[in-house]
Amino acid sequence: MNQQPAIAPSTARAAAQSHFRTLRPGTPFQPRIDALARTNDWYNWAGYRAPHSLWDEELEYFAIRSQAALFDISPMTKYRVEGPDAEAFLNRITLRDVAKLKPGRVHYTAWCDDEGFVLDDGTLFRLSPTRFRLCSQERHLPWLLDSAIGFEVIVEEETEAVAGLALQGPTSFAVLRDAGFADVERLKIFDIAEFPHDGSSQGTSRVTISRTGFTGDLGYELFVPAEHALSLWDRLMLAGELRGIRAIGYAALNRARLEAGLIVANADFVTAVHAVRPNRLRMPDEIGLGFMIDFDKGHFNGRRAIVSARAKKRLRHVLVGLEIEGNIPAEHAMVYYRKSQEVGLVSAAMWSPMAKRNIAIASLARPFGDTIVDDLWVEIYAMRELQYQKLMKRAKVVPRPFIKLDRRTANPPADF
């Protein structure tokens, strides 16, 4: 029997250390992001090296709310779905009625397994009558290809081929206008359009711009072929110099999305493919996505299970917004009923500068948060004089979003 040569312990340790020192691959925008990075605060987003913050987490948040913030969304998984049966295929796997999504529009949707548990949520862009772009948190290509059997449709992942940027904040429209994107003011919320972009030595390309975002603010998302990414970045940064444009990391975006009451897969709920324990699985109604289910469109993945769960009242959880007394964020705090019965867990929390409230998103076991909303408490451990102190703070269920900014949907967009 052949034996593999043994590896010396010192060599193994060196290899392991080298592995952990190696940064993950960057996106097409990485040269520009690296040049701006001051905090060296990176995290792994779908295998890409992405900034948790770039210069100051708190000030990056205020860049979103007071000027224009540029965030690299290239690691977001993107699929091209195209063909005569593209609409029928997407109607079969997602919750919303794709027939109602007109070309040049976007909608937020989700998809489930056959048991009605959420596999992921994301955005669906209808670029033409037969061509779509599906964006998601997780990778689903094998499942999509299996689901496409019997449909005349092409499904391809284009994550690496298409670079993406989110431009968010009150001056975002003015930045796009000053960058020369003519008639961008015509885009209403959830509209999409293509605009020319001169990629310098690479030639002229097209930029797809949608009036969408993950901040609850006025904002846009831009998609461009990867080879034109840097020229697009430079075009926006130059045009936004007088409008206060700043690049930001995920921590600031996460604060803004919480104020907007938006949820994140595998943060506020565990997707069906990642759930190890059965009690971690969630149906759309259990994470606030029941509104998007369209039963008039015919059969879709999980339909029978969802109908049965509603009819038999087998929905076990509810995702709620909480307002908590005091100003200490209750992130990952336990939620109790009458200070004694454990009923849920906070998944995201912050003191909101915009709402001037201590806010949180929490998953509770029904009937708590559903029919029982009084006498709820959260258990917070706060560091005081080098010692953790347990604080029991009263919480009340409140509607999401926690803030609602008129400029997000204003038409035409405001010129700040």
What's the topology here?
Elements (H helix, E strand, L loop, with lengths): L8 H13 L8 H7 L4 E5 L2 E6 L3 H10 L1 E5 L4 E6 L3 H8 L11 E8 L5 E11 L2 E6 L4 H7 L6 E4 L4 E7 L3 H7 L13 E7 L5 E7 L8 E7 L3 H11 L5 E3 L2 H10 L43 H9 L5 E8 L9 E4 L3 E12 L4 E9 L10 E9 L2 E12 L18
Parallel strand pairs: 3-13
Antiparallel strand pairs: 1-2, 3-9, 4-7, 4-8, 5-6, 6-7, 9-12, 10-11, 11-12, 14-17, 14-19, 15-16, 15-18, 16-17, 18-19
Written description of the protein model:
The chain is α+β, with helices and mostly antiparallel strands. The chain has helices at residues 9-21, 30-36, 57-66, 86-93, 141-147, 172-178, 229-239, 250-259, 303-311; strands at 41-45, 48-53, 68-72, 77-82, 105-112, 118-128, 131-136, 154-157, 162-168, 192-198, 204-210, 219-225, 245-247, 317-324, 334-337, 341-352, 357-365, 376-384, 387-398. The chain has a 6-stranded mixed beta sheet. Strands 14-17-16-15-18-19 form a 6-stranded antiparallel beta barrel. Helix 3 crosses helix 8. The longest helix has 13 residues, at 9-21. The radius of gyration is 23 Å and the shape is globular. Residues 319-404 form the Aminomethyltransferase C-terminal domain. Residues 58-297 form the GCVT N-terminal domain. This is Glycine cleavage T protein (Aminomethyl transferase).
Short summary of the structure?
By secondary structure, the chain is an alpha+beta fold. Helix content is 20%, strand content 33%.
